[in-house]
Amino acid sequence: MTLFLGYDPGGKGKNGVAAIRVVSDAPEVVAKATVSDAAKALSWLEDYAKTAVALGIDTLLAWSPKGGRACDDALRRKYGGNSIVAQNSLYSSMTLNGAIVARRLGLPVYESHPKLLLRVSGENTIREVYDDAVSTTEADHEGDAIVAAWCAAMGHNRKWAVDLYLDIEDDIELVVPDARYPWFEEV
Question: pTM of the entire structure?
Fold first, then answer.
């Protein structure tokens, strides 16, 4: 069973990290935590990185010089809602901490959007694992990290064929070379 890591970058004391194994497409949580900052998140993740094959992060791993990304526009058109925020509107802790950890950890990296995925996908197994994690901590950071790790597993194992970076034409700059944005259906 292969290990996947997840990271939900946030502000002070709001950095979720997780290590999961995927058994029959279902996540099995190995460990999870909420840590104080990106340095602590990196240290926590490094403890598991030796046996992990990929990292999922709830952050933008590609940026557009146009101020907005075509993949975000496509998600907004398909699903609506206000959880898909323009890149220029995001707080620095999410974008900077995510990029720093992704680059330093050195694993294949996958962007994720846990809140949107849980709202639109109908994936009950990951929703149950997320709900369990959130109910024990009363915060969503660890749950988002678990979902990010699971999205990395689905992309890395090619269970999801859509890559929102490649399948939607855009002028984007990858923050980490070879980063991907797997999604469960075409948008």
Answer: 0.95
